[in-house]
Specification:
Pfam families: PepSY_TM_like_2. By secondary structure, the protein is an alpha+beta fold. It folds into two domains: about 100 residues, no CATH class; about 80 residues, TATA-Binding Protein. It has six helices and five strands. The chain has a five-stranded antiparallel sheet, with no helix packed on it. α1 crosses α4 and α1 packs across α5. It is elongated.
Amino acid sequence: MSVDDPQRPSGWLKTLLRWHWISSAVSLIGLLAFAVTGVTLNHAAQIPAKPVVTRLQAEVPAPVRDALAAIPEGGELPGAVREWVQTQFPVHLAAARIDVSPDDITISLPRPGGDSWVSIDPVAGTAEYERTDRGWIAWFNDLHKGRNTGPAWTWFIDLFALACIVFAVTGLLLLQLHAARRPQTWPLVALGLLVPLVLVLAFVH
């Protein structure tokens, strides 16, 4: 039986230590970022933020107006219109929410830390773009919440949460292995459970 055999206590300890340090290394920066943004979210009302609003307007050219007029009720936005919008304004429509009606086309472009939209009036032949930027703290806060971040960031949060679970569980098992020589271990673990539990029961309604 080899030294690294997980059937032996030394093998278990080495395995736990290996998974513990790997999961801690993978989740370290994320844990720090989520802890900091937890504080900024908790005090969002006390952190001053002045939104910066950018507005642009444009005249819709005749070929684009013809393409708009040909859209059936509840139809999709034609490729020519999409191309013109992306050329005229600093937007990408791949993940946009588009509401098409005969007298108005609204393109919603929510994003972390702000939002933007494009409104097209097919009758008047005008288009308006507005972008609101609420600052880098709001951007990080929205990343923390996964708000308007897209599927790639959602997958990252899931994988990061899995790494944190591995980190916590292996840490708990390591505490169990060393608890006999450290009598403060379980009282401190119990304290970590009781403090938030008491606060929730006593002050959160």
